[in-house]
Design a protein that fits this description.
Blueprint: H1 2-24, H2 31-44, E1 49-55, H3 58-62, E2 67-73, E3 79-87, E4 93-100, H4 109-139, H5 149-161, E5 168-175, H6 178-185, H7 187-205, E6 210-215, E7 218-224, H8 228-236, E8 238-241, E9 249-252, E10 254-260, H9 271-286, E11 292-294, H10 297-318, E12 322-331, E13 336-348, E14 351-353, H11 359-362, H12 367-388, E15 395-399, H13 410-420, E16 428-432, H14 438-453, E17 457-463, H15 470-475, E18 480-483, H16 498-512, E19 516-519, H17 525-533, E20 538-539, H18 550-557
Parallel strand pairs: 10-11, 13-15, 15-16, 16-17, 17-18, 18-19, 19-20
Antiparallel strand pairs: 1-2, 1-4, 3-4, 5-7, 5-10, 6-7, 8-9, 12-13, 12-20, 13-14
Helix pairs in contact: 1-2, 6-7, 12-13
The chain binds ligand C2E and calcium ion (CA) (2 copies).
């Protein structure tokens, strides 16, 4: 026994040393080695089973929600003879216990001290390693449990090292009006909706891909280019659960910037990808119709031009460089002026800049709202003057960008401007384009209902080109449907071309819904005839007049009749 003790002694110190060596190895750590050493130590001390439990917090321990590691199990059973419990600084708990089989020789005091030391060594090791992975888990996920920026960087770096970034598509996207989902259905429902959206998208991007949340409602996704079409289709708008019990859904859509990573791409730093997708995504977000923008060099050039327009805007507004042009609307039954649309022109010295050259830029931010209110203000000023001069005033329509739609004070602001000039409300019409999301739809409905109550007209602009749905028309109390000029047949179209058929169909539908309709962009005599056959009474277009300067338009107010057909 004595000799044995000595032999055991040196073996014990050898194994303890091995144990410490294995545990302090940072790289190349092998669990197998650790288990081998622990197994031998257990046998040396007649231990039948060694167990370690890790609890992330004291509450986890109370609820018995821990992770159990069995380091050694001879299958002989028995009673636990030593149990050690460590509570770490961050309140994680690690416990370890060893069991001896019935009938085994009990541990001597010295053996007891040694086993106790081994358990404590193992526990401190486990708590350190596990805590590290908990910390890692936490640091790669945000407070809502979504993979975060750090996770994205790790993914990019790793995929780059594997030379697998080339040929993938990187996307940055922003969920449209997601805060309103929270407002409308509650934050908990918002969380569920975002989670379902994420899970479904994660599925679509596949195992080689990634989806991470940068913060708020901004995400980055990476996927193989063969999956891109499906992913973009999903991002365009998908109804997702916000209530797991009832299965109710809300449509969530995103504005997306895409960068197609070239096949031979090797990343030097993640900024090379991030800058591109963020720029493209910003462009997608501010575009009114485009929801997906691909990054290319032209995008960069456009951005620079946009910056210049944006920079000059405040001064141009102060200097009143934006002029109101009026395009007459004609009543085909009487040949008289029935109204006009106010259209903006930027007059810089000799140069007259068309709205398509600056409005999309202003729509990238909420600057457009300032311009729209400025236009409304100038229109009201003109109407006031015409009324004071005793002219026959017609209703003037003003365009309102979709950018306004989420502004809760919008109706109030509109009414304040009109009332400031003491203009009777019936002289004002607001043109609004269609919307896509459910939330925008509700906001639009609220606005139009409010306008209606205030006696201000509301019309659907560009009807037919966007995301028209019959719901939009039926559920909102519009006064006028403005049929986009793409519904009018071209000169070369046959008289019964599909466009003519569509046009007749749309006007018939408007009539059925009790809405007035006006055709935009009427340029030819045969188009006027089509309007008349379809009982579309109102027309606007170059055939009658282009958008006119105020003085010229005032002549039209004086009652000249238009030559119809
Ligand atoms: P919109 O609201 O659809 O305005 C009608 C556009 O069609 C005007 O272009 C008008 O000049 C043009 N148009 C009228 N008749 C004809 C025709 O017979 N043939 C053709 N080919 N075109 C015709 P404009 O003035 O260049 O305005 C372009 C767009 O800019 C407008 O489209 C509107 O979306 C926007 N816009 C103009 N002024 C404002 C504004 O004050 N605020 C906002 N938010 N948008 C504005
Ligand atoms: Ca318009
Ligand atoms: Ca239009």
């Amino acid at each position: 026994m004595e000799k044995n003790e000595n032999g055991n002694d040196s073996r014990y110190y050898y194994l303890l040393e091995q144990l410490l060596l294995i545990m302090t190895k940072v790289k190349g750590f092998r669990l197998r080695e650790l288990y081998d050493v622990l197994g031998e130590l257990c046998r040396m001390f007649r231990i039948s089973k060694g167990t370690v439990q890790f609890f992330q917090g004291l509450n986890h321990e109370m609820e018995d929600r821990g992770e159990t590691f069995v380091c050694y199990d001879s299958g002989e059973g028995g009673e636990p003879v030593i149990t050690v419990r460590i509570v770490t600084k961050v309140n994680a708990v690690v416990t370890g216990s060893v069991t001896m089989p019935d009938g085994a020789e009990p541990l001597s005091p010295e053996e007891y001290a040694r086993v106790d030391l081994i358990i404590k060594t193992v526990l401190s090791f486990v708590s350190r390693v596990r805590l590290q992975s908990v910390v890692e888990m936490l640091s790669f996920h945000d407070e809502k449990g979504f993979p975060n920026t750090r996770c994205l960087m790790q993914y990019l770096q790793k995929t780059n090292e594997d030379k697998a970034l080339g040929g993938k598509a990187a996307l940055h996207f922003n969920l449209r009006h997601f805060s309103l989902v929270n407002q409308e259905f509650g934050e908990q429902a918002g969380d569920i909706a975002m989670r379902s959206f994420y899970e479904e998208l994660k599925e679509l991007t596949g195992r080689e891909g990634a989806v991470c949340r940068l913060g708020g409602d901004n995400f980055v996704a990476v996927c193989g280019q063969e999956r891109l079409a499906e992913v973009l289709d999903f991002l365009k708008g998908t109804p997702v659960h916000y209530d797991t019990v009832t299965g109710r859904r809300v449509k969530v859509s995103a504005s997306t910037g895409v960068y197609l990573i070239p096949a031979d791409f090797i990343m030097q730093n993640p900024g090379e990808i991030m800058d591109k997708i963020i720029a493209a995504s910003r462009a997608a977000r501010s575009g009114v119709k485009e929801r997906v923008v691909y990054y290319d060099d032209a995008l960069q050039a456009r951005r620079e031009r946009f910056m210049r327009i944006q920079q000059r805007f405040p001064e141009a507004l102060r200097n009143e460089e934006y002029h109101v042009y009026y395009q007459p609307k004609i009543d085909l039954q009487t040949g008289t002026l029935a109204g006009a649309e106010a259209l903006c022109r930027w007059v810089r010295g000799e140069e007259i800049i068309a709205p398509n050259d600056f409005i999309p830029t202003l729509e990238m931010s909420t600057e457009i709202c300032k311009l729209d209110f400025y236009m409304l203000d100038h229109v009201c000023r003109d109407i006031r003057r015409w009324l004071d001069e005793g002219r026959d005033v017609v209703r003037i329509s003003v365009n309102l960008s979709r950018r306004h739609i989420m502004d809760f004070d919008l109706l109030q602001n509109i009414i304040e401007i009109i009332d400031k000039h003491a203009v009777p409300h019936q002289y004002i019409e607001i043109e609004l384009t269609e919307t896509t999301t459910d939330v925008e739809f509700r906001a639009l409905k609220r606005l139009v209902t409010g306008l209606q109550a205030a006696g201000i007209f509301a019309s659907v602009d560009d009807f037919g080109v966007g995301y028209s749905s019959l719901n939009l028309i039926r559920e909102i109390p519009w006064n006028v449907l403005k049929i986009d000029r793409s519904f009018l047949p071209d000169k070369q179209d046959e008289p019964d071309s599909s466009r003519s058929v569509m046009f007749r169909y749309v006007t018939a539908m408007a009539k059925e819904l009790g809405l007035a309709c006006i055709a935009e962009g009427v340029e030819t005599q045969s188009q006027v005839e089509l309007l008349q056959e379809s009982n579309c009474v109102l027309a606007q277009g170059y055939f009658f007049d282009r958008p006119l300067q105020t003085a010229e338009f005032e002549e039209r107010l004086s009652g000249r009749c238009y030559q119809i057909v």
